[in-house]
Amino acid sequence: MRPVSIIGIGCTKFGERWDSSLRDLIAETGIMAIEDAGVSGEEIDALYVGNMSAGRFVEQEHIGALIADCAGLSRLHIPSTRVEAACASGGLALRQAMLSVASGYQDIVIAAGVEKMTDVSSGAAADALAAAADREWECFLGATFPALYAMMARLHMRRYGTTQEELAEVAVKNHRHGSMNPLAQYRMEVTVDDVLSSPMVADPLHILDCSPITDGAAAVVLAPAERARRYAEVPIRIIGSAQASDTLALHDRRDLTTLDATVHAARKAYDQAGIAPSEIDLAEVHDCFTIAEILAIEDLGFFEKGAGGSAIEDGLTSLDGPLPINTSGGLKACGHPVGATGIKQAYEIVLQLRGEAGSRQVDDAEIGLAHNVGGSGGTAIVHILSR
Amino acid sequence: MRPVSIIGIGCTKFGERWDSSLRDLIAETGIMAIEDAGVSGEEIDALYVGNMSAGRFVEQEHIGALIADCAGLSRLHIPSTRVEAACASGGLALRQAMLSVASGYQDIVIAAGVEKMTDVSSGAAADALAAAADREWECFLGATFPALYAMMARLHMRRYGTTQEELAEVAVKNHRHGSMNPLAQYRMEVTVDDVLSSPMVADPLHILDCSPITDGAAAVVLAPAERARRYAEVPIRIIGSAQASDTLALHDRRDLTTLDATVHAARKAYDQAGIAPSEIDLAEVHDCFTIAEILAIEDLGFFEKGAGGSAIEDGLTSLDGPLPINTSGGLKACGHPVGATGIKQAYEIVLQLRGEAGSRQVDDAEIGLAHNVGGSGGTAIVHILSR
Questions:
Q1: What's the sign of the alpha-carbon dihedral B240, B245, B251, B252?
Q2: How far, in Å, CA of A147 to CA of A129, rounded?
């Protein structure tokens, strides 16, 4: 397996993109990434795209052929593959694309992610998202997706003393970061009081504890590391890439306060990279709900189990703290177009490692981590990137 | 890239499986394939599953985690990936699994395919299938999926003199083959008159020119060729594997009577295998409609463009002819659970190359080809297998 680098990136504005269809979003981000890499269409060997549920959201499947078509590459007849792992679909596309280059089978490969979620009602969108959980054993029995994370939050609070204020601090921090990101869906700051007084969705999670419904797309271009400098001034190496699964339903898990899939994927990725969690300079983690960020920073080995809430409250994961988490604003404020999120995480890390993150730039960032979760933890994907 | 072999296979009965859910079908075929290979759960490194539209058919996404869970493998936390390319999702799963073993990244990998289509009305199923075509530029303008293939048929008839009787002969042959396959959905034989007097769906395609709506699942187990004999008495080598894309919509194509994606994928697969089309002993091709089989046997290089219809009428592709096509009964008679079809094709070829195909066994079969198409040709995937 040969080393792989990211040589180009693109990301659309996230939000309610009523001006743009699924294919518009793909074309917009694809062109950005290709231009950023400076590759020609003829050089591209393959495409991978992460998408959770275009079938439900816009009645379109066959998303691989669609993106090749939209990108103007269909006449080259290159392979184009859609992958799906619910909200981890983007991370999965990055991983499959990376493997195809690492194996030597392909050279220049695009990994993209897209979701167009606002063409249906919010009720229909919530139901489509519930397909990430176990439909037969969770949803048919009345569980909504926020309710599953609410159960994890309740047990974490009971077992470790995590408070609603600590949960709210995740939202406060990520909205502050998002206010500095021109691509973010929500650029307004919020306070702990705002979060705690916002409508309750699934106790203890208020609406400001939840990530929003978003349209958006992102893309990265990969190349063998040995050829990366031909295209990019600062190519970013993928030094770890791992994927793990767990039971689809929560009730079958060993422990509700740990995502074992995250633990297993992180362990493999750290091994591949030959580093310890303490060597990570910044991370984008999967904060679909505020509790999810607390679980993530514990399961990724940044903090002891149970210490995540206080770490956030103490500012350890803020932009000016020792380990900035979700400088993009995270899923919470930047938005969560589910299939695109995993690629947007890589986009943000690359931007930071290149030193191009503007007012939210992390000083001397050398190594970053991207952590993407499918459903309530049935899939987790971890990538470690290095300048 | 190291050589890869198929060491185990499984396939459920195809049909209206009202007794079985999506997860039942997965468990049934997974156990068959694992037992056939004689591998233990702990030896399995990864799973790939092809599924087109469980989101629409059974309101469930996150199919990778689901199959790991159903197969009892979730506690091992191995990576499990769903891929989608409409009706070519199964072939795509086989190809991605093959690449992961060929790269040396993984050793024992399962490629599965599944679709549970009969839990919704036939109208809803037809609409879900239309998501394989270009929703915005074809379906919104009134095209159904059969109508797209009907247009290809009309032009083929006009340009090459292909007749409705020749189209019907595809159905007659495939039903005859299917009558010998205990797993086939339709085991009754039909005549040319039956086909021509059956209800018209989209002129010139009658209902007996169309593949049915089907529940089913299939799985194969892959291993590095050098280790294959530890598991299988007759391991089957994958000597060619290729994937190509084309425009999603028909109106953007160079030619309506050729699937360029098939031509490109086949050319690459023959190159990899180092063989000519004339060296293929039998093939499973994508006969979603009778015209599709005629296009396929031309585009795969078995017959000149325009000569497919007469080749079938002359019996050249029958079980006792020089190049038996669709000995399983094809999509037409064996059934077409879309995500499973590409894996079922590989299952049938392996069965034949092992000499285990019973009354439909092809004598001295050494090399077989499997050809899987997504939509109206937006994706094509070709695998060549050898004893």
A1: negative
A2: 13
Backbone angles phi, psi at B86, to 5 degrees: 55, -130
Same domain membership, residue B178 and residue B94:
no
Beta strands at A80-84 and B80-84: parallel, antiparallel or unpaired: antiparallel
DSSP bridge partners of B82: A84, B49
Q: Are residues B376 and B248 in the same domain?
A: yes
Cβ contact A378–B85 (<8 Å):
no
- Parent domain of A99: 4-121+214-236
* Domain presence at residue B286: yes
Q: Which amino acid is residue B332, in one-letter code?
A: K
**To 5 degrees, how large is the angle CA A97–CA A103–CA A107?**
60
The first and second tokens of residue A118, run together, are 């606002």
ipTM field: 0.96
CB contact under 8 A, A64 and B81: no
Nearest by CB to residue A260, choosing from B77, B80, B83, is B77
Q: Which residue is closest to B100 within chain A, CA to CA?
A: A99
Q: How many domains is chain B partitioned into structurally?
A: 2
Which pairing describes strands B282-284 and B367-374: parallel, antiparallel, or unpaired? parallel
Q: Say how far apart CA A296 and CA A259 lie, in whole Å.
A: 8
Helix, strand, coil distribution of chain A in percent, nearest 5: 45, 20, 35
Which of A21, A92, A245 is the closest to B74 by Cβ?
A: A245
Q: What is the pLDDT of residues A231-256, one digit of tens each?
A: 999 999 999 999 999 999 999 999 99
Identity of residue B42: E
- Helix (DSSP H) and strand (DSSP E) numbers for chain B: 13, 11
**Is the CB of A245 less than 8 angstroms away from the CB of B78?**
yes
Active-site positions of A? 87, 336
Whether pTM > 0.95 for this model: the answer is yes
Q: Which residue's structure tokens are 């306070």?
A: A191
B116 in a structural domain: yes
β pairing state of B46-50 and B80-84 = parallel
Interface of A with B in 83-112 (CB under 8 A): 83-86, 92, 96, 99-100, 102-105
Whether residues A198 and A72 share a domain: the answer is no
CATH number for position B247: 3.40.47.10
- Tell me how crowded residue A272 is: count the other CB atoms within 10 A of its CB: 16
User: What does R_g of chain B's alpha carbons equal in angstroms?
Assistant: 19
Quick one: B256 and B371 in the same domain? yes
> Tens of pLDDT along chain B (387 residues)?
899 999 999 999 999 999 999 999 999 999 999 999 999 999 999 999 999 999 999 999 999 999 999 888 888 999 999 999 999 999 999 999 999 999 999 999 999 999 999 999 989 999 999 999 999 999 999 999 999 999 999 999 999 999 999 999 999 999 999 999 999 999 999 999 999 999 999 999 999 999 999 999 999 999 999 999 999 999 999 999 999 999 999 999 999 999 999 999 999 999 999 999 999 999 999 999 999 999 999 999 999 999 999 999 999 999 999 999 999 999 999 999 999 999 999 999 999 999 999 999 999 999 999 999 999 999 999 999 999
Q: Nearest-CA neighbor of A10 among A361, A240, A335, A351?
A: A351
Interface test with A, best of B26, B56, B62 (most A CBs within 10 A): B62
Task: Judge whether B133 lies within some domain.
Answer: no
Task: Report if residue A333 sits inside a domain.
Answer: yes
One domain, residues B280 and B367: yes
| C-beta of residue B111 within 8 angstroms of C-beta of residue B339 | no
Q: Do B83 and A85 touch (CB under 8 A)?
A: no
In chain A, count H helices and then E strands: 14, 11
